[in-house]
Structures are given as C-alpha cells and as structure tokens.
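Data deposition worksheet. Section B asks for the primary sequence of the deposited chain exactly as it was used as input, without tags or linkers unless they were present during the calculation. Section C holds the resulting structure in token form. Section D is free text for depositor observations; keep each observation to a single sentence. Incomplete worksheets are returned to the depositor.
Section A, Depositor: J.P.
Section B:
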Amino acid sequence: MKKAILLLTLIFLSFQMQAQTKPTIYQYKVQDLNGKTFDFASLKGKKILIVNTASKCGYTPQYKDLEAIYEKYKNKNFVIIGFPANNFLWQEPGTNAEIATFCQKNYGVTFPMMEKTSVKGKDINEVYKFLTQKKLNGVLDSKVQWNFQKYLINEKGQLEQMYLSGVAPTDEKIINWIEK
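Section C:
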C-alpha cells in the first residue's frame, strides 16, 4: 500500500513539474536564406530577438538598428533572427537570393536570416505558431500585425515579450532586456 501511494505521489509530482515548465523554442528547425538547416537548439543560453522583415516597408530602415544592436551584443549571448515574409501588402516580393542581396547591400546585415516564410494565416511558419499561440508558448496569444514585429526569447528559450513594429529595435525597453 505504501509503495502504491509513493508511486502515485511521484507520478503526480512529475505531472506538476511538467505543467510548470514553460515550452521553449528549441524544438524548432527552419531553413535559412541559403537553404541550410538552422536549429534553434543551437541558441541555448542566448537571448533571441525574432523579427519578421520586408524589403519594401516603411519600417525597412529598422534593419540598420537591428544590425547595430546585433553587432554590439552578439558576443554577449544575444542573437537576432530575421524571418522575411510577404504577408503585408506584398512588401517582400523577392526570392531568398534577392532578399539576401538586398539585406547585405543596403544594410550590411550579418545576423541570421531565415528563408522567406509566412508569419500568419493558414500557411504560418511553425516558429510563428509558437510565437503567437499561448497554448504553444505558455505566455501569450498575439497576432503579427505588420512587418518588423519583435518577439523576445530568454536564455531558456521561453517567450518573454512581444513588441509591435513601431517600437524601434534600439528602444530602451529592448536594450534594457538585452542588458539585464
């Protein structure tokens, strides 16, 4: 009888611990602009800023600030991951190769850029399902409202915050988060 009670207690505690563990982004693998597999598990221990990008958007100049903060903090356990998407008024019409050339030529982008994808709708990328659905990320439901919306992932791979496009990458809230 004591063994049965002990076993049931252990099972209960195991379920409790699993329920308290927030989901992480580390389970996802995607393709980068060059067609190579990018494994989010390789980012364990780093803070991650994920941003959906577009080459023909009013917010496109944010690439400059994104690259600046990436350069400043990339050796301090921080990375930016860009996801080009054509979901908003066809503002990212190019191919992966064209997007790569645009980013390098116009903004000197060196942070990792993933292949062109969808960040909303029926064909939403799996990473963006995670970012936008509380049942998957354990934190919040959101919708990607426009290009250059930012998601902040902590060192444990857990979603912490989301900022709309109008919040600059160099905003005090984002910089304070990176530096803490």
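Section D:
The first helix runs from residue 2 to 20.
The chain is about 35% helix and 15% strand.
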